[in-house]
Amino acid sequence: MRTVLIFVSYTALLLCGRSIMQPARSVWDGVYTTQQAERGGATYRQACGYCHRDNLRGDEGPALVGTAFTARWTDQTVADLFLTIQSTMPEDSPGSLAPAAYTDVVSYLLQSNGMPPGASELPADLTALGGLRISDKPKR
Description:
Elements: H1 10-15, E1 25-26, H2 34-47, H3 49-52, H4 67-73, H5 78-88, H6 99-112, H7 126-130, E2 132-133
Parallel strand pairs: 1-2
Helix pairs in contact: 2-6, 5-6
């Protein structure tokens, strides 16, 4: 009998939409900076606001705040959110923004959903983003 070992990288699993690793940190740990979210807000208004509206409540595109956001993204990773946005937005030109611009927009979405800022910017690195879990606000 032969045993075959298959190596699949964490990034490949993320790209397939599956993760076998439990993220170590949460978006409630302060994973972006206020300045990054401000840049993301400017990019969002320019590239996303037309469909999702400046108030993020949606119109042609889905709402990106409140229960619509938490219902869709709770128990996912920030990498899942990043990859979805990068591969589908803006609708007329998916993937056209720089990776840093996408992480800025993700930061803006986190801020708009009440997740606190921190001291370090959210990186445009899939492995790092895969280690950040989106969850409901922890009870204290």
